[in-house]
Structure to design on (503 residues):
């Protein structure tokens, strides 16, 4: 088949590296490349500002469930956080300030989305078609993130709904919810944050819950100006804070790998529910029926109070049908509403970047992922996709900060780019047997983790029940594996080999 890579592009500039996306991963990639003395790279961003998921998600109450001290770059600690757990506007502001501080903003071509990335085997180059033209690059870093494609179920009668309807990731701030009858679909990480914010405004709030999540108290507190000044003047405090948070998350990860260790925590959480939720029927409905940690652990102090408000009704069933402005639950319960807000998360098992990548065999990567979730090597390289990296790809999820994970992967990626430059090879591709053996081992060791054995259906599992998200070992093990780009894992070709192949 004819691909974009067959266009005549010989006169174009060839970049050493092309970065797609200016969220947390893309910014870190650019900063680390500059630090290593790389300047011949191009960054494109589909939006008009940096921030990724923290730019897109602006729903009321949006914030991070990882403490601020850890949800920040290791090379750009901040003393400006107003709470132990940062809110979305602060995180976005932080990312923008970092991009300015490290002179990255001026390097980004905004409002320019990738349309196709095609591998040109004859020249060992990527041909990148964007909204603003075509580019060539020796290597590509796809830093588009895993949380980008909002998900709305296709339900019977949805097109008959005459009220207002939007997903939490595309919040309609122009619509006033005051006095409205609102149905919230889903009780995941976003929903438990915005439900307490909208509950006091609405006339009636119907919360559709398919599965009760584990919601633990959030150890949050405000940081006043005095606290910020002390942290600013004594960086050792922030480094110590960061180390302590990392240590506590390491302990959680041990439990996720050894579910038996979490049973006492789960039992204590259920006892706490007796204090948090007085009504027995409601308490039973919000009590999880799976092991703590099987699905994402949520943290909130105001979610259960919002569910117990007079104008709120929890419906412990999924939404299955819509008839006009009537929403119908799986148990047949019907309610008239003016607004539907989807808190149904994202399609993370089929990353949208796959629709844009055409591999060395001329195949669109999303077609290969159609009936299964993606596989990668250390979440960074894909089979038959040469000279390219993913950041935060499959099976690197550890209960920690995404920023920590991205930085760890970028150590691996940049080591690969440095070896490519120093050794002079023009093509590298993960070996088929290496990626196969890696993923077989990952899947084997995931079987005993809480994600696979905890008795729940989570977004970690694809439609075939395969865990495409989690890393089955410790963060320390992942970091160690990502310290060095081992050329023995890759098929490597040099310029002379490319020339002979083309001839």
């Amino acid at each position: 088949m004819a691909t974009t890579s067959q266009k005549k592009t010989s006169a174009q500039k060839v970049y050493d590296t092309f970065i797609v996306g200016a969220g947390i991963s893309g910014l870190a990639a650019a900063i680390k490349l500059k630090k290593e003395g790389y300047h011949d790279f191009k960054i494109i961003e589909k939006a008009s500002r940096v921030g990724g998921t923290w730019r897109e998600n602006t729903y009321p109450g949006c914030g991070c469930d990882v403490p601020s001290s850890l949800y920040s770059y290791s090379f750009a600690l901040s003393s400006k956080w107003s709470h132990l757990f940062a809110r979305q506007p602060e995180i976005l502001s932080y990312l923008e300030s970092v991009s300015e501080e490290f002179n990255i903003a001026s390097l980004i071509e905004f409002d320019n989305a990738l349309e196709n990335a095609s591998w040109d085997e004859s020249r060992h180059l990527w041909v990148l078609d964007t909204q603003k033209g075509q580019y060539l690059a020796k290597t590509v870093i796809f830093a588009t993130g895993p949380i980008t494609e909002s998900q709305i179920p296709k339900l019977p009668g949805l097109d008959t709904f005459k009220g207002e309807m939007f997903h939490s990731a595309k919040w309609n701030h122009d619509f006033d919810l005051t006095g409205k009858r609102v149905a919230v679909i889903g009780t995941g990480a976003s929903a438990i944050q915005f439900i307490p914010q909208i509950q006091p405004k609405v006339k009636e709030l119907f919360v559709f819950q398919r599965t009760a999540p584990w919601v633990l108290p959030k150890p949050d507190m405000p940081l006043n100006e005095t606290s910020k000044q002390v942290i600013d003047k004594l960086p050792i405090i922030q480094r110590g804070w960061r180390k302590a948070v990392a240590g506590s998350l390491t302990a959680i990860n041990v439990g996720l790998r050894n579910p038996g260790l979490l049973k006492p925590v789960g039992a204590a959480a259920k006892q706490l529910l007796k204090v948090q939720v007085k009504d027995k029927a409601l308490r039973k409905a919000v009590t999880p029926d799976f092991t703590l940690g099987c699905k994402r652990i949520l943290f909130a102090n105001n979610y259960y109070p919002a569910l117990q408000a007079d104008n709120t009704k929890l419906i412990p069933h999924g939404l299955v049908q819509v008839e006009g402005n009537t929403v119908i639950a799986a148990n047949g319960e019907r309610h008239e509403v003016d607004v539907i807000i989807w808190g149904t998360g994202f399609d993370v098992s089929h990353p949208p970047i796959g629709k844009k990548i055409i591999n060395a065999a001329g195949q669109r990567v999303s077609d290969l992922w159609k009936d299964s979730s993606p596989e990668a090597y250390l979440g960074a390289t894909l089979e038959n996709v040469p000279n390219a990296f993913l950041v935060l790809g499959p099976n690197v999820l550890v209960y920690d900060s995404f920023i920590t994970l991205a930085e760890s992967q970028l150590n691996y990626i940049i080591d690969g780019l440095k070896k490519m430059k120093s050794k002079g090879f023009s093509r590298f591709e993960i070996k088929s047997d290496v990626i196969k053996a890696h993923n077989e081992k990952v899947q084997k060791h995931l079987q005993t983790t809480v994600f696979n054995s905890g008795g729940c259906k989570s977004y970690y599992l694809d439609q075939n029940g395969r865990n495409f998200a989690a890393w089955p070992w410790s963060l320390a093990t992942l970091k160690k594996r990502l310290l060095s780009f081992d050329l023995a894992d890759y098929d490597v070709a040099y310029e002379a080999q490319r020339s002979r192949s083309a001839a």
Q: What stands out?
A: Residues 215 and 298 are 5 Å apart (CA to CA). The two ends are 20 Å apart (CA to CA). The first strand starts at residue 14 and ends at 20. The first helix runs from residue 24 to 35.
